[in-house]
Amino acid sequence: MTPPTALAFDTSAPWHLSEQVSLRDESFGALAYHHGTRRLVFLKSRELVDVVRRVGEFDSADAALDALVPAAERGRYVTALTSLVRSEILRG
Amino acid sequence: MAESSLRDRFERGLAAPICLTWELTYACNLACTHCLSSSGRRDSNELSTREAKALIDEIAAMQIFYINVGGGEPMIRRDFFELIEHAVDQHVGVKFSTNGTRIDQAAARRLASIDYLDIQISIDGADAPTSDRIRGTGSYDQARRAMDNLKAADFGQFKVSVVMTRESVEQLDDFEKLANHYGAELRLTRLRPSGRGVDVWEALHPTLEQNRRLYRWLLERPNVLTGDSFFHLSALGEPLSGLNLCGAGRVVCLIDPVGDVYACPFVIHDEFRAGNVRANGFQDVWQNSELFRSLREPGNAGACTSCGSYDACRGGCMAAKFFTGLEMSDPDPECVFGHGESALAAKKVLLRPTPSPDHSRRIPVSISAR
Q1: Which residues of A touch B16 (CB under 8 A)?
Q2: Using an 8 Å Cβ cutoff, are B240 and B212 in contact?
Q3: Strands A16-17 and B273-276, how do they pair?
Q4: Residue B23: how many CA atoms within 13 Å on its side-chain side?
Q5: Contact predicate B78/B305, CB 8 Å
Q6: Which residue of A has its CA nearest to B60?
Q7: DSSP letters along B156-200, please?
Q8: What DSSP character marks residue B292?
Q9: B14 and A26: CB-CB below 8 Å?
Q10: What ipTM did this prediction achieve?
Q11: What is the rounded average pLDDT of the residues B104-109?
Q12: Chain A interface, mutation test: which of B1, B62, B252, most A Cβ atoms within 10 Å?
């Protein structure tokens, strides 16, 4: 099994979609499956799926959120990404 | 974004199943009394290695993350390792259910060397007499030997899988101890009147009181896996962990050894057959079968309309109703408020469906220790 990683979400650091995760688009967003932890995670909006796919292109999560997400909704996205870091869908 | 709307989305179906069960063969060296697939003898029409590999390629293309492989006893197929290795090579995870009889030391080492592989070993009691009454003499010891071999081979975490019967439900704490002993996960599933299970269901399904205890036990242990099989118990209060819906044809389905696609692993019956993968592949069945389309229509609460708990249990399990002779609009036969029992009692004539495919052996099986 994958050892537990640091679970804090530092938005000033770079993050990317884990190589062990498969993403499948669905009408409500996407399903993410982590082959290591064997956990299935539901991403409940297309916009969130876009952020998860592209966050690795940016130098930091902050930069990704600046570019991809309306400022007013930033808090919601940080919450969602934090839970994805905790479930190891996103890696630092 | 609310959970309920996500559940509604699931009930309308997904691009591909979350959970695809594939029974590799009807051949089995055991003859469990509750076998869902009435297994025993191999079917001469089972998918060839080439066909099975093509199906795996299609599963990978559909981005189905993992498959639940079963049978029969899947390890009896000579190409078993070839097929599971073909799947994991394409990042299709494999979880397979086995009686463990074929997991000797060498097989355990080979299994331990494969990534993305998960194993469920079935027992039906926490001791040999209880388990063997269902699975056959010697089967419990062989399953324990398989667990010992996996542990010795450093396989990592496997699953101990138990069907909840009137007897095994009294041993919940012992199953937990056994799983802990191996560092394994415990998985409990519901006894269904499917396959040969219809012959033992009445005598062996847990009583209302046992189901209430099981519900409380599970609620305290969200880490115990259930494959979402006890959602009918969620009508007792707080929902159990899981999606709490009938996923048949919506998020789950079953492919049988001859390539027939059924709505779920518990309804191997003509009435729930959606098509065959040999015609135009699996994706065509998943997307276009009339049966699956109708299952994805909004459900009708039927007799449960006036029950305040319908949202919690959604009327229960389709297979449990069908094989006990209830209508889809009736309550689950194990409805926690007893409405199912009343519905069964009220039927003047109970027409149980005749089983469709039956691959049971015609002679009793005996297992020799190796």
Answers
A1: 24
A2: no
A3: unpaired
A4: 32
A5: no
A6: A22
A7: ---EEEEEE-TTGGGGHHHHHHHHHHHTPEEEEEE--S-TTHHHH
A8: H
A9: yes
A10: 0.80
A11: 98
A12: B1
